[in-house]
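Researcher: I'd like a structural prediction for the single chain below. Treat it as a standalone chain; there are no partners to consider.
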Amino acid sequence: MAVNTPDPATRAIATYLSEHPGPQGLDTISTAAGVSKPIAGKVLKQLVDTTPAVVRLDQSDPKHKTWAWALPATAESEEPAASQPADTGREPDPDKEKAAEPVEDSTKGAETPAADASVGTGSTDIDEPEDSDSAPERDADQVIMHAARTLAAATEPITTAEIAAAGYLSARSLHLLTGLRALTFHGLIDCSKPFEPDASDCTWTWNGGDTAAFLAKAAAVDVADAPDAQVCPTCGNSKSIPGIAKDRKRGGNVRLDGKTKFANNELADMVKAWIEMPENAGKLVKVNDVIVGLRKVHGDRISKQSYGSVSKAMVKLTALDPAHKNRPALLTHESDKPVTYRIRSLV
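Model: Treating it as a single chain, here is the predicted structure.
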């Protein structure tokens, strides 16, 4: 699917504002972007109206309006690269550079270092190769990383459109929406409308904390982590949320959480069998109680993503069993907040 990109004037103006912090006048912006003042004014108005958390207008002086990039620079972009040598203002010493070059050992015909800087200094620092186990298995999703950096820099909740505008993405990008929901699934950010994340007024907020740790965790998030549906914790009803197609990579018989898919009615049969255990008779249980009990029996085949299916299976068990119409239902509904059932005694 083609991604809508901003026109050249919008891109040029947004780039100039992001690279030149502080108030900028219309003449300066139009000249730097290479567009006329009427076009620059129209673009700026559109940016302020659609993305107020990214571009802001200061009209305290009506005769001299100014515009500024509202998102602060992240600490990651402000820090100089560690690999760059410090500029001391001195010319390099050719004698020292020559001494550091390898010299040829005429007796062996091989190159050997001229000197070991750590010898005789008491230094024991040795650059050891990094543990291969710590290397990332895949590259971080750049759309998710853009969303994470933008949210970390924002000072207030911002919409999907504002996050998209900061990275020249389409406000209707399903990749961005799915990435935001994946970050929410991992508890890294909050969504104001979890059942309507695609609403225009839905906002996203970073939970706060250490920025570097947040970005490190975001780098491990994948769009496939976003659940296909949002499940209500009260009633168990689910709502499908639009998103990009996810590459399962492990084959068609594997769920999003990596576990093998259940056969038809397999999970419902597991729920019924657990409820029919004699030691559970008469208990008051919630959906999470049943999930915990099932995990003790079936291990990690039962995950948090099984909540909706377990809830639906329990609702069905409140009705009479068609095969045994003379028997009462296995479960009786006791309360709504939280949803609680009582297990009937089979004795």
